[in-house]
Amino acid sequence: MKSGFNRYTYIAILLVLFIKLPQSVHAQEVLPSESKLKDAKTKIWFNTYGNIRISKRLFWDAQTHFRFEETEDTPFIGQIGQIYNRHAIGYIYSKKINFSLGGVVRINFNTDESSTDRKVVPEWRIWHQYQFAQPMYSAMIYHRIRIEHRWTQGFEENSEYIYRNRWRYMFRAKVPLNNYKLESKTLYVSPEAELIMQSGKAVVGSVMEDLRLTTTVGYILTPRLTVAGGLMYSQGQTLENPGVFKQNWTMRFHVYFSPDIRKVKNKLPAIHFND
Amino acid sequence: MFKMDHIKFSFKLFLVFFTLCQLIQAQERQEFSGPMKIGPYIGKAEYTFILKDNDTILDGAFRMNQSNLDALLKNSDGFFSFTGSFDNGYPDGDWKFQFGEFQSESETEVVGYQYRVKVSGTQHEATGNMVLGKPDGNWTYMVTEIENSEVNKTLFSSTVEFDQGVPQKSFRIENEHNSLVGRFLRNGLAHDIWTLYSDEFSDRSENWFFNEGALQKIEYNLADGEVITKKVASSSNLTKVIDLDERFINLLKINQKEPDTTVVFQKGIGELLTENSGYYRGLDTILSALGKSEFMPGFKVKAAHFPLDSLGNEQLQSIKTQYARVRKTSQSLLENTQLNILRRSDREAQFLYAVISKISEDFLNPAEKLVDYHNQGILEFIPTERLFDNVWSKGIPSKTILVQGEEGEQTYVGPGANEFELSENTITSVHQLIQYAALSIESIAGKLEEKLLKESKQQELVALEEKMIAQSNHIGQVLDSVKLGLSKREREALESIQNLADALLEKYATMDGTGNKTDFGLQVIDCLEQLDGLTIAVAELPNRWANIQEKYQDDVWNPFMATVMSEEVKKRISNSYRSVLVPYLLEEIKSSLSCDNVTKLKALLNSSYQRMLEMREENTSKLERKLRKEQDPEMIIQLFNLKSSENE
Q1: Which residues in B lie closer than 8 A to residue A258 (C-beta atoms)?
Q2: What is the 3-state secondary structure (H, E, C) of B369-404?
Q3: Strands A36-53 and A244-257, how do they pair?
Q4: A29 within domain boundaries
Q5: Structural domains counted in chain A
Q6: Residue A42: inside a domain, yes or no?
Q7: Which residues on B lie below 8 Å from A172 (Cβ)?
Q8: How far is CA B20 from the centre of its chain?
Q9: In 3D, which of A75, A72, A67, A136 has the Cα closest to residue A108?
Q10: ipTM greater than 0.95, yes or no?
Q11: A224 within some domain
Q12: In which domain, by residue range, is A122 found?
């Protein structure tokens, strides 16, 4: 009886939240006659990407990012913005195609220095991803479609979750600079462009959440360890007003690691997926 | 009644005995019919024989022949036919020998139901009777020339009457141009005048005058009535009955004072007798192969005899053995290729060679003649004076041997020359002469052998040195060719190898030529060979490392790049090899290389590489754990299970 009550109460609250939120929290502001570009923020991200092989076809995708942003006094690394944990189980369809499904927990820190609201709120996502690779001359190009189902809330006390879908497509190339192919001891440059669209009840006009243009230079230390660093420019509509665009300059530093925790005898043959 | 029984019993006994004999006879006598070979004669034979102690003893009729029509028609046929009989292994009864060679003529005719082919060629035919293996009664031997199946001319014919092997009465031997007639006493001794006269010129003849076997003189009647008489002087009171055969003819020639230059007849008495006895010997060869036979002319003469006393005989034996030995030594020296090369550049060798040559000519060749006479059995019939005239026609050689050299005459005096007295014409003197020759030759051989040994040692050293230089050069070449691609460590190791090689050569060069230079040279070569191997092993290091690196790779799929990358595997092993083991070995080569450890170092370098190739495939997880932080090269050698010698 008690649990039943609780459940219904919970659903009711959720429903109220979803219906009321757009109206109460994100009331539409007036569109400006011309689009406005906010001042660019500077940020710095430290990202780790783990790809841990657990069977012939499955891997554990484990990513942890530490994202900092400017304060009034300090550009780029003035304060912590988000700590981001993305995990998934991936399926290797072939050497060039793989799929992933998993969840994200992101810790959002309140970066508004004047705010008196909560300092930290969590954010939840379910995500799935489809990645295709193509060799092109000595380089490789990649197409990544990532779909995220995202629950976010504001920093205000008792602020409610809003639900959105994110539609992401990334085009990326990796061009070896000191080698004829991507292998150990290779320096490469990687230009990338990612468009992130969003949809959901809370999204009225701001469908382009973010457009990210990045150039990264990386170095493949071993087949199992790569480091990279680059600079990203991004801009997108603010949720509050589609006529207002935010923009960022972000320095990104990555570590890619791909250990294989299988027993030796299961590793062989290492690359023959179609056997 | 009793008597009748006795006769019956005797008769029965006789019957039983007779049957038994027949039985034994029938059991023992066997017939043979099949192929047979006697000397050059191969044909079909038929005969009867008995077996006695596993020996085949011919007994009864014998027949053997061969003729080949195919061969005759194609080219020519060597035919033969022997018929006769044996009695308990002895040729006995009538015998007929026919053999020769015929060519077919193109002319043929058919007579009755037979093809007749006319033949031409030569035929030998001998017929006569044998008693216990010896000729008995009239024997004729004819050699005829056949043309178109008819006798064209008689090339040779002899008719001799025998009495159990002893020639009787008179004989006649003819050839194409001359005829010889003579007679014997009952004991086979030649007697009276034996005359050879020409069939064409009635005034020419050769006469041998015998008196009861002793040849007194020889007379040649020449065309113009000239008569040459040669007295055969008997200078001895002793005589001995011998066969009138080649030996006696030889003896006559030797005993002629001056060589007989007058050719009176194409074939004189001597030649004719020799020819006859040659034919007889041919038949004896056939008969002796089949049974026991003495088929010979058996003409006897009395020859002057000069027997040696027991000392002389002893000395003669000694001469024979010493001659054989000295001849062998001198011959081998004269034919020695090494000496023949050496004497071109070495004056003393040339001189000694010339001395041997001179001794061979002046001492040994005559001695050979003497020995030959003795072997023939005619030595004892030659008077000493004649013997020395004949053998040492230029006189007994001097002990001082003169040799014509490039710078005039040189003399050689053999060891102990004073103890020898060579001047007399006696066997003792010959004995001394051969001893002197033996001593001289032996002494020269000793000197030359020493020289040759020295020479061959010298050549051995030259060969060694050539090999050494080649090896050292090879090391240098390898070094030069790889130097640029090598690391400092590797270069230093190679330089150390070359330094050792140079040091070895220098040490060898400063040794004096005596004693163990060859031994040391061989050691140097061994060491250089190993150093050469080590050089190659060091020079190969970069290639080997490249191979190892290539092998110690695994393909890994990188999920971030979606590419396959090569990954180094078993890094601890390759690191141990690359960073500890090889530097350690190179350092060893650089700092303490010697001929004693070169083999070991080479083996370690080579086997470590081999092991690296092997370990790639092996399960090495344990080893890899042990190698963690292992910096002791000796420990790594142990862990890698390396062989430090190539034989292990």
Answers
A1: 558-560
A2: HHHHHHHHCCHHHCCHHHHHHHHCCCCCCCCEEEEE
A3: parallel
A4: no
A5: 1
A6: yes
A7: none
A8: 55
A9: A67
A10: no
A11: yes
A12: 38-261
